[in-house]
Amino acid sequence: VAEHFTRDWTYTPGDGKKFFGTGLMYDKVYAYIGTHFTTKLAAYKGSLDPMTLFFDENLKPAFNDEAGVKALSVMKELKKYAPPGVMSWQYAQSKDAFYQEKTAMLVSWQSVGMGANNPAESNIVDKWWVAPMPKGVIRASADGNGRSWAITSDTADPDLAWEWIKFWADYDRMIAVTRSGAGMDPAREAPYHDSELLKDFPFLEIVWESIKVDVPFPVMPETPRLFETLSGYLQSAVLGEKTFKNALDEAA
């Protein structure tokens, strides 16, 4: 599909204006290139458990397998049909390209849909829709929600932290923030079934189907450092600086 839409769709052939099949967030941050990788790794490996995806029973790296190589090969193939510069793209660049009709589709968070029908920032008002990620062995998505909270073991005042979480997790407040256009996604299930919210944002019903097959980050203290390292190797593979297998083996 991405290949089909990557072409000169203008009325003046050769004018240098090109339409691309997909927008990608391949910046070397795990929330970006790592999310693309995790989604595909889960789909091809057939598991939504982050510990099973990335580690074996002895907590040794296990992402450098056939599924990992397949995930990277698809990521590199998609890069052919994306605008120049996507290796440094984050959320804003990918979203804006989609809003300005420079790309046919993108993989992103539901907050993109909150502004897509706002004519002040989007040229695609009422000309877009959402769909779950394509299925591999299973259907999967990754990093599906843009807001989450935790109380660490060394928090100075756990009770105060809990009160702060309850304040922001208040149902009415979460609905208001979602409607505000601030780009924050609901962090509770209930808003995705709220009848009034769905009247204005009906696509959230489909988004919820993707969240149900979401792959969270592994819950372990080493996660930020481990995945920051992995992201650099993912970039090297997509850029062709390393083979897919070598990049994953070296990361492991």
Explain what you see.
- InterPro entries: Bact_solute-bd_prot1, SBP.
- This is Extracellular solute-binding protein.
- It holds the Pfam family SBP_bac_1.
- This protein is mainly α and 252 residues long.
- The protein has one domain (2-147, 202-251): D-Maltodextrin-Binding Protein, domain 2.
- Helices cover 44% and strands 2% of the residues.
- The protein has 12 helices and 2 strands, in the order ααααααβααααβαα.
- The protein has helices at residues 2-5, 30-45, 50-54, 66-79, 91-99, 111-116, 158-168, 171-179, 195-200, 204-211, 223-238, 244-251; strands at 141-142, 214-215.
- A two-stranded parallel sheet has the order 1-2.
- Helix 2 (30-45) packs across helix 4 (66-79), helix 2 (30-45) packs across helix 11 (223-238) and helix 11 (223-238) runs antiparallel to helix 12 (244-251).
- The protein is globular and about 50 Å long.
- It starts with a helix and ends with a helix.
- The model has no long low-confidence stretch (mean pLDDT 90).
